[in-house]
Design goal:
The chain is of the alpha/beta class and 240 residues long. It has a single domain (14-215), classed as Vaccinia Virus protein VP39 (Rossmann fold, 3-Layer(aba) Sandwich). Helices cover 38% and strands 18% of the residues. The protein has helices at 14-39, 46-51, 54-62, 84-91, 106-115, 131-136, 155-169, 183-193; strands at residues 74-78, 98-102, 121-124, 142-148, 170-180, 198-203, 210-215. α3 (54-62) crosses α4 and α7 crosses α8 (183-193). The longest helix is centred in the first third of the chain and has 26 residues, at 14-39.
Amino acid sequence: MICGAKEKLAPCSNAKRWFEWSEQSLLLFLNWITEVSKNGYWGSPTATWFATTPWAVNEICQQMAIDSLQDGDLLVEIGPGPGPMAQYILRNTRREIEYLAIELNPNYARHLERKIHDPRLRVVNEDAANIGEIVSELRKKARFVLSSMPFSRDEKTTQSILHQIRDQVLRPDGQLLVWNFTPASIEQVEAAFDAENCTRDRVRLNAPFLRTVLTIPSQKLIIPFPETRSDTPFKDVVNQ
């Protein structure tokens, strides 16, 4: 389902971005409260807040060379949350890209639909464990896949998602960019893509311990899809 607005997002002031971040932070906090009440999850949301500040988003996106994007390129973000990365990228490229946001949390999915009015954005309220099938409906492969990790608390599921990205989702010159505060997530990416195909870095401003890894596909298995868009619609984005 494509957002109904016809105009691309326009660049905005830093003041507006920080205002949006404050709204996104409130949504992140409320979601954390829900996780605590339902699942007994007591992890601090502070790391997530740091990773979504405009400063951190700027640095992360600088590592993926947005200027290299071309018309028709597909970007896939896994777990975009309230959407700071999607907003930045869509505002800073005029290219006719496709931005596929795969978000499991229905509250975040509704927020993305409501706040990001750009015809290049698709939001799918599904589990990233099915990423290979979801992307195959587009009949094209991704130039970039973006995500903070872990994708799942289950290590086997995380590895399955990484293998689908490597073998089914990325095109031959595609890259996976992951950012996280834990070395374990970076090591999982390196295990799936081979360390020699990975470049580690850090986000040095307000989140000095935020780690990133940028990869290229290992080329072990590439499943070709014709580079044409499918007329098959996605399932409805937001659970009503």
